[in-house]
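Tokens for Glycosyltransferase RgtA/B/C/D-like domain-containing protein. Go.
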Amino acid sequence: MDTRLPCRIARLLVEHPRFPLACLLLALLVALPSLDAGFFSDDFMHLAFLQKRAVWNPSWWDLYRFTPDGPEHVEKLVAQGMYPWWATSDLALHFFRPLTSTLVAFDFASFGHRPLGYHVHTIVWWLALVGAVALVYRQILPRALGHLALLLFALDDAHALPIAWVASRHLLVGAVLSLLGFGAHVRFRERGFHAGRWLGPLGLALGLAASEAALGVAAYWLAYEWLGRRERGRLRRSLPLFAVLATYAIVYRALGCGARESGAYVDPGADPVRFLATALERLPIFAADALLGVPADLAGTLPRGPVLAVGLLALVGFAGLLRAVWPRLDIDERRTLTWLAAGSAMSAVLTLGGILGSRLLLIPSLGILALIATVILHGVTRLGRAGAGLLFVVHALLAPLVLVKGMLMLGTLAERLERTAETAELTPATQQVVVLAAIDPLLAFYPSFIRRANHPERAENWFTLSAARAPHRVTRTGPASLRLEVEGTTLLKSTLERAFRRPEHTYAVGDVTRVEGMRITVAAAEAGAPTALDIALDAPLEDPHTALLARQSGALRRVTLAVGETLRIVP
């Protein structure tokens, strides 16, 4: 095969038999900043659950069950401040990840509140994943192509959250186990490795017990059998795969798992029409991330139009580059890349129901990076060399810098979130915390879990009225009443806010929500989203058991007002 790398030295390096070991060392090197990332967001929920300190606590093996069954139970959690006042009573967020939950419980039993041990454990899974990818590539790709694709995978900036965020470790665990199973199945099919007959289904089953992301590996398995093999009997040979998937679906539904009535999560089984519409919108966003490194996480803060346009242009341009190099490939390479592309596309679609972010590309990138490596190796025309050079710069030179920066930023964000929760202006007498304007959606939800996890002896109930990133005006309208107004926008616009309520569930002026110690009335609304709230507390604002807070100067500070006085809170 004519590899045509930029220089002979690079070609010799990428073809060296020990190149995968170098990739493994690079993967370790780029992951080291995650050791200082600490705990972040859902990690504190898990810590609170394991200490039985939340208002409601799932079992240690079911830590990704965020809501109990039944509207009456969800309403109770809302009333007691575990979930925001706008959460719909039909909300269901329950993910089947018993194996990953068990690993988190093991970490807690071993390391307690010391995050370093959790992150060392996560890095072990990250290195195991790079090793599993190396094994799969070795079986299906020519050496130089497989080695280059492995290098791009080890440096891919989309992997920052799975490496640095403990709660996102489920992606790594599910990918490792299912890929090892898939690799065993391919070896069985290609080389007669008889143990692969049962190791394949076993690995996939264990991967699915760790994360629904393992469904992406099942997509590669299906594409391999139906597009990568030419002999008859595809259906018969796919029966073990279908048996595992059918069993998983039965268990998943029997346990009530899935996401329902959430504006951020879309369950394809519960709402296929909405899922299809969501997938069509998100695929170009994924393409912009996977091909050009434009983080999908930014899609929630940037105008969707330009991001979608960049994604579509990236898809068209990359398709043109791939078409130009296609004649240079032999028939086996074409067949392999065809089923890899199909598996990557199917696995990407299967992940599009989650909260949009680069981390969802972990398994789809297995095929995407093989295609990118192909263009880099075979770009021979002037335009092809330019495209290959751009892809090499984005994925081999810039990606590791973005990866490390992403982990460092997560650590900084985690530290800031925990510090803000810990320094909130509360007193020992505080029993109810009312955050008028959190400004940051993370501060609207996680401080109560942070304090419950770090201070089991304390149990304040937290209620956040607004998480909008905008100026607010708060006016005291009586001894125990307030009006809160947001300027220039509405409430419930961020991804985290929409996680608790679908946009179709609109608000009208006069709608009332009752929580413990407080009544919240929608005073004004725009397009079904509140813009002003009237708040009536059961006790005067000066009650020592209640703390009125707002995000001011980067901290949660107390708000004190005389009747008729107005305070403007700015980000």
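Residues 382-422 form the longest helix (41 residues).
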